[in-house]
Amino acid sequence: MDKSLENMYRCLSYHPAISGKVRNDECIKIFIGSDTEHSDIAQKMHVHKKSFDVKSDFAFLEKTSPNDVKQKISDCDLFIFLYASSTLKNASPQGPEYLTKIRSFITESWKKSVLFKDYGPHFIEAFSEPPASITERNKKLIELSSRSQKIQYTDNKGNSIVGYLEKDHKWTSIDGSGNIDVIPGEIASHIKSLNGSVSFSGTFLSTAPFAIKYGVVNDMMTINIKEGEIIGFDCENDEFSRDFNLYLNHNHGNRIVEEFGIGTNMGVKALYGRNAGFEERHPGLHLGLGGGVKGSHHLDLIFSGGKIAFDQTVFFDNGYVNDFR
Predict the structure, then answer these.
(1) 188-192 contacts: CB < 8 A, separation 24 or more?
(2) Alpha-helical segments (H) within the chain
């Protein structure tokens, strides 16, 4: 646990809200708020010895008045909330009641917020790999991309999607060095010329409740993609077909594969269907639909396995291989 907390605080030190003060050796005021489920890890986070100067405050979110929580947010340089939302028995789209009362205030303060939602017992796992290892893996993948003309994902049935890369194709590296949501482990890009059909096994990440309703699925559907858009899908589950069609037809932008993401955090050992952000860092492919066109809604399809290659170099085969481990 101590190692994961050390890794988390190392990533946190680069958060834009506090990185300047960290560089100047100034004291950082951090407020940690937790629900009962996450109280053990939150309190250990509170007392953990940091590598930079921190004055830490802690409160139970369910037991502290909204006004007191708002005051603590106002007084701090950065606040961290650990809480269950999608995984609650009577989950609400607005989140737990104690947060709905201060939702607008949290939104106004988003630049200094870090929200570990629905991590449950997997927080330690999510931060178990040293950020330096993830940074190196991301760097190797992007360097390999720069020497390649295409990327190909092949599912465990042999079906594939292929995307052609532009010259000097740009990738975003999320390695814990300055990203807002702190959790490291992803490279991501937009690939317009993405074509093919693949079977989807894995889970979902979205404010739409796909993950909580369907969990981790196995060969749930075959997705057909043409020039970066979903043109159709085949599925034997009638209820899922209705739900997914409703999503796709709500806004044309929901059909667009806005993000071709590759999870690179080898500490994340499995997918859990918790609708938690760390699952997006799970090793392997995720396709981010929607979010680019006004009125569209982002939905990540996080694949549980398969094979990924730049040109003829396979770097992922149900797990990272060779120099990418």
Answers:
(1) 188/259, 188/260, 188/261, 188/262, 188/288, 189/259, 189/260, 189/261, 190/258, 190/259, 190/260, 191/151, 191/163, 191/164, 191/165, 191/228, 191/257, 191/260, 192/227, 192/228
(2) 2-12, 19-23, 39-47, 66-75, 97-100, 103-108, 123-126, 131-146, 210-214, 238-250
Domain count, the chain: 2
C-alpha 1/C-alpha 45 separation (Å) is 10
Same domain for 105 and 244? no
Domain of 252, in residue numbers: 131-324
Instruction: With 0.90 as the threshold, say if the pTM is over it.
Output: yes
Compute CA distances 222 → 88, 157, 229, 246, whole Å.
30, 11, 14, 17
The last residue of one of the domains, among 126, 153, 179, is 126
Convert the pLDDT of each residue in 246-270 to its tens digit.
999 999 999 999 999 999 999 999 9
